[in-house]
C-alpha cells in the first residue's frame, strides 16, 4: 500500500517534471506593445507564451525601463518590437541589461515588425528637432491599418516557424485562420465606414495616420502643435478656426492624453471629443487585435452619427 | 559554324550605321534649335521686352528638353541594341535589316518589336534605363539661367546611409548660475559648468561602447568611457573602462539626469566630491534569478585613483560591491532598494584605507494612464564612512532625503534635505534644505531653479538661488532606470 503510493507519487512527480519541461520548451515571446502580443498570440496559439511590456492604455513612447522588464527580457526567446524608433527612449536600456544574447538587435531573436509593413509619414529633407519629436523612420503607429496587421502576422508566422520548425504547420494554419477572420472583419469595417468616407477629423497626436489611410478618414489637424509638444494657446485657436471653417465636429484623443484642451476645443466648435484606444487593451472592450478595430470603428461611427458630422 | 565569322562584322557595321544616324539626328536637333531661336529673335526686334525674353527662354527650354529626350531615347535604344547584339553572337542580323533600320528609323526595328519607337520622336519615350537613378529637384531659381533643368541625378550617397556606422553623437550643455552668498563653497555667478559629448555605438555582435567626454572650465576629461559585453555566458554583464562606480544612486547619475542642480552634500563629503566615485576599472554584474524580486549583484575593481581613494602602489586597488533589489508593487508603483560597499586606500598616509557603506531606497509612482503628466520619486541614501587617518579611524555618517513630484506635463517640484558629517572629522556637520522647480520645454531641454539654504560646520549660513539650463542636441541613448 505504502509502496504503491510512493510509486504513484514518484510517477506523478515525473509527470509533473515532464509537464514543466514541456511548458518551458514552449517559445517564450516578449513584445513591446499589446498589439504585437495579440497578433503573435493569434499565430502562436498555445505553442508559445507571449507577454507585452507596455499596456494598451499607456503611451508607448514613454514606457519606463523598469528592472522587472529586464527579468522578462532575460527569459525571452524572441523579442518583437514595433520599431521605427517608437521604443527608442526605453527599450535599448532594457536590452542592454537583459543579459540575453538571443534578443540583442541583429540577433535571431530580435524581430522588428515594421519591416514588412506599410509605413506612412516618412520624412523627406532635412530633419531637426525644431519639428518636435519627429520620427525619422516614419510613423510608428502603423499597426492601426489592418493590412499591416496581416503583414505582421505573416512575418511573425515565418519567424515562429524558423524558431520552432516542429510546429511550423500549426503556425501556418493559425496564421491562415487569422488572415481569413481579418479579411471578413475588414469587409465589415469597410462597409460600416463606407458612408462616412472622407470624413474630416482632428486628432491629438499623429497616432492615426495608418488608421485614417485604411478607412478613408481625412485628418486635417492635430491638437499638438508638433509631435510630442503639448498644446499651445495659439495653436489651439488655429485648430478651432480650422474646425469651424471646415465644419469639423470630431476630435480623436488617445486615452493617455489630457482631454482638457480637446474638451475646450470641442466646446468652442460644438464638436465631440472621442477617446479611441490606439492599442489592444486601451479600453477593456478592445481585448484583441480584431476587437480593437471593432471597438474603434463602432465608437467612431457612433460619434459621427451623434455629432451629425458629414 | 560558317555564319559565325561574318556575324560580328555585320553587327559592327550595323552599330556604325546606327551611330551615324544618331549623330545626324543630334546635329539636326542642334541646328533646328538654333534657327528657331534666331527666327524668334528676328521677329522680336531687340531689345526684347521682359515678357518676350521669358517666352524665348521657355521656347528654348522646351526645345532643349525635346532634344534631350530624343537623344536619350536613341542613346538608350542604341545601348539596348548593342547589348542584344552582344548576347546573340552568331545570331543573324541581316545587313538588310540594319540598312532598313537605318533608313526607316524611327520605325520599329524588327529585333525590338515591343519598342514604342514612334513615341520617341514625340519626345515622350520612356527609354529602357538600366536602373532608375535617384534624382533631386533643381533648386528654385537655378533653372532658366543656363543652369540645369528638371531633375538632376544624384551621385554618391544622398541619404543617411553614408553615416550609418557613425556612433550616436550628442552634446549636452549644463549651464549653472548662482546668486546669493556662500563663503565656504562658492559657485561662479554664471558658468557653462559642463558640455558633455556622448558617443555611443555597437562595437560588434558582442559589445557596445559608450564614451562621455566632459568639457568643463577645468578642462576636457573622459567622464566615462567603457565597453559593455551584454551577451556573456552565465548571465553576466561586464563593463570595462572608466566608469561611474555602482555605489548608491546619486553617484551613478550624470549631471544632466540628476533631479537637482548640485550633488547632495553627503556625496561631496563622504564619496569624493562632485565627481563622485569615478575611476578606471572592471565591473561585472549578474542577475540573481528568483520568483520574488529583481536582484542584481555587482562587483567592481578600480585602479584606486579618484576623488575618494588614492593608491600608492599597483596593488592598492579599490573594490566596490552592490546588491540591488527591485519590485513592482502595482503597475505604477515600485520600490528599489540597494546596499553598496567601497574599499580602498586613501591619501591620509601610506597604508590608510577608507571604507564606505551605503543604503539607498527609492519609491516611484507613475500611473501608466497618466504617465506623461504625473510621477513621484522619493529617495534617500545613507552613507557610513570609516576613513583611516594616521591618528586613527574616523567614522562619519551622512544622508539625504529627496522627493520630486511632476504636477503637469512640463513641471516638476522637488525638495531635498541634506545632513552630513565630514569624512575626516565627524564633529563637522553640514546640513540644510533645498527646494526645486523644474520646467521642461521638451524632452531635450530643461530649466531648473533651486533655492538652497546650507548651514556649514564652520558656523556659516548660506542662502543661495541656483539655476540651471540643460540642453541636449543629437542622439543620446536611453538611460538606465
Structural description of this entry:
The complex is a heterodimer of chains A (310) and B (481). With 310 residues, chain A is α/β, with parallel strands linked by helices. Chain A has 2 domains: 2-185, 3-Layer(aba) Sandwich (Rossmann fold), CATH 3.40.50.1980; 188-307, Rossmann fold, CATH 3.40.50.1980. Chain A has helices spanning 2-25, 34-44, 67-75, 91-97, 146-163, 168-193, 209-215, 233-246, 260-269, 289-307, and strands spanning 27-31, 48-52, 78-81, 110-112, 199-203, 217-222, 250-253, 272-275. Chain A is globular, with a radius of gyration of 22 Å. Mean pLDDT of chain A is 90; it is low at 10-24. With 481 residues, chain B is of the alpha+beta class. Helix content of chain B is 20%, strand content 43%. In chain B, the strands form 2 sheets. Chain B has a 16-stranded antiparallel β-barrel. The longest helix of chain B is centred in the first third of the chain and has 38 residues, at 6-43.
Question: What is this structure's SSE topology?
Answer:
The complex is a heterodimer of chains A (310) and B (481).
Chain A: H1 2-25, E1 27-31, H2 34-44, E2 48-52, H3 67-75, E3 78-81, H4 91-97, E4 110-112, H5 146-163, H6 168-193, E5 199-203, H7 209-215, E6 217-222, H8 233-246, E7 250-253, H9 260-269, E8 272-275, H10 289-307
Chain B: H1 6-43, H2 50-87, H3 95-104, H4 117-121, E1 135-137, E2 151-153, E3 168-181, E4 190-204, E5 207-216, E6 219-229, E7 236-244, H5 265-270, E8 278-287, E9 294-302, E10 318-328, E11 333-345, E12 353-365, E13 375-389, E14 392-408, E15 411-422, E16 425-442, E17 445-455, E18 461-474
Helix pairs in contact in B: 1-2, 1-3
